[in-house]
Request: fold
Amino acid sequence: MIRRTVHSSFRLGFLNRVYAPRFEPRLYQQTLELFEAAEELGFDSGWLAQHHFASENGRLPSPLVLLSAAAERTRHIQLGTGIVVLNQENALRLAEDASVLDLISQGRLQLGLGAGFDPDSFAAFGQTLEGRHGQYDERLERLRQALAGEALNAEGRVLRPAASGLERRLWEATSRVEQVAARGNGLILAPNPTAGAEPRSQVIARYRRAWNPAHSGTPRVALVRAVFPGADAAADGSTLRQDILAYVERQRRIGIGHADPAQGFETVLDNLGVLHGDPAKIAEQLRADTPLGADDQLIVQVQTTSTGFAEALRHLETVARDIAPALGWQPRQQRARAQEIPA
Reply:
């Protein structure tokens, strides 16, 4: 038996924001079941978003805790945060928790970070939005120092347990892509309600051009797209339509949204990067998007606030069976089989 290297066009992940109209303990169990199902379907990564105080009906303030449970119930799938709001974390404590999780999961943690933009959460933490980027940069550097094993005080204290290689698995969600590239981190590119309307392809091109070749590895992009297969996904009265319009209204209320319902619901969906309808149509739309390489990831979000567990599971199955393979993706199991051929 000999082995050969099989290259995939990109890696496939899913993002779960643990949305729900109200909190129920079973939400966390269902989230873990989605990780198990995604691994069986061959997904390469699963990502959890952090929401403090149930902002936007996100019910998970502690993603690393839930990812620890996911680590025990899976063996292969990468475990990502998309994102942790670094401004509302102690950088050294986050490094400690992340290091322990990375050890438990045998090096599967992908640590995604951002500065946050929700004014309600900032106010609850006794913070303001002004100056948040400077504060984020300071905490990110402190986090990097800890993960890299650098001395943290005059006595030479270092992070214990050590986080071997985790500093090379940092991701950032921000419009300041040149800084992400300069730091050698991956770029999480999701619809940003505080940013302008610059095309995704241009943002990614800026990031790749700014990459410092002195860094180990290559530039890597995690492109987040909301994907809702189904002919009636955006029909009048659908849960998708209701949830999206409620989301846009909240954005406009707190002064950060750019989507305008007066322009029509399809325009709103386009502004938010939401794809829906026939799987073949969704695949064609994704094919026309920015090409992704072997170090990049397509991250699908398949739930809004009212999406139930069974529907979310069907969406993941459709993505893995009908949409991603049409773009050249292969499930992990298929890639593993292809690497072994008879001598």
